[in-house]
Amino acid sequence: MGQEQARALIVGIEKRSEELEARFEKTSIRWRRIGSGPPLVLIHGGNGSWLHWVRNIDALVRHHTLWLPDLPGCGESQELAAPASLERLVHALRQNIDSLMGTSQEIGVAAFSFGAILASNLALARGGVSRLALLGPTGHGQPRSQISLKNWRLLPPGEAQTEAHRHNLAQLMMHERGAVDALALLIHREASERARLRSKKISHGDDMRRALDRLQIPVLMAWGEHDPTAQAAAAAQALAQGHPNRRSMLIAGAGHWVQYERPGEINSLLCDWFNEPG
């Protein structure tokens, strides 16, 4: 797939979705809705956009109405007027969901990376979340691997920046080099260039774990085997052990952006999880 094909794929999904504007205080937050059925909110990761889910939408939309926000300060959403603390980000999501879907609407929530911190705290604050699925979740408080990323902003526009984004994708997001294709590069580059939300400090804490310890709903956690944002096997065991309502698993051969690198496996997993009775 070349860049033109990647762009056409994204445009095709955009044409099938409905763009909605929600507000939090004076901030405009962009949402996309696509499909019909029980609502499933998909929350992207830090420095990302709704397109973190580009390879999962077609599978999930067969069973659900998908609701995909660009988080405040990401993608096409404005920044929050005051500092984007965890509490304010969760409050913004909760208020948006209640205004778009209703305060009594039960929802499922799937989240990636930094989004998992927001999703777990949203479920705690709002209630009405039937199930959580957290992919490559951060905020676990467990050790992380050391990686070396390139500051693309210090490089001249053009090929030098493109190669820096390619390097960063391979270091942080993907395990297999072949997974860093034109579509992944386009999504990652544009999301990085638009990102104003600073999520790193929150991601490196343990706010997800502390929220999960207060929740009693079913929670699925999945990490790529080679995810550098966690020592995946140890984190999976530590967060699930002693909690019968939690299920954790490793996806062999995958890195952090697991739902992009292993879409078939993740799509089956999510479809089964959110359609499981009880």
Q: What is the name of the CATH topology? A: Rossmann fold
* Alpha-beta content class: alpha/beta
Going across the biggest sheet, name each strand in turn.
Answer: 1-2-4-3-5-6-7-8
Beginning-to-end CA distance, first to last residue: 41 Å
C-alpha Rg, in Å?
17 Å
The CATH architecture comes to 3-Layer(aba) Sandwich
How many individual helices?
11
Dominant shape = globular
Fourth CATH level, the homologous superfamily: Alpha/Beta hydrolase fold, catalytic domain
Tally the structural domains.
1
Beta-strand content estimate: 15-25%
Summarize the biggest pleated sheet. Answer: 8 strands, mixed
Structural description of this entry:
The protein has helices at 3-16, 57-60, 86-101, 114-126, 159-173, 182-194, 200-203, 207-212, 232-240, 258-261, 263-274; strands spanning 18-24, 27-35, 39-43, 65-69, 107-112, 129-135, 219-224, 246-251. By secondary structure, the protein is α/β, with parallel strands linked by helices. The chain has an eight-stranded mixed beta sheet with strand order 1-2-4-3-5-6-7-8, sandwiched between helices. Helix 3 crosses helix 4 and helix 5 packs across helix 6 (182-194).
Could you outline the blueprint of secondary structure elements for this entry?
Elements lengths: L2 H14 L1 E7 L2 E9 L3 E5 L13 H4 L4 E5 L16 H16 L5 E6 L1 H13 L2 E7 L23 H15 L8 H13 L5 H4 L3 H6 L6 E6 L7 H9 L5 E6 L6 H4 L1 H12 L4
Parallel strand pairs: 3-4, 3-5, 5-6, 6-7, 7-8
Antiparallel strand pairs: 1-2, 2-4
Helix pairs in contact: 3-4, 5-6
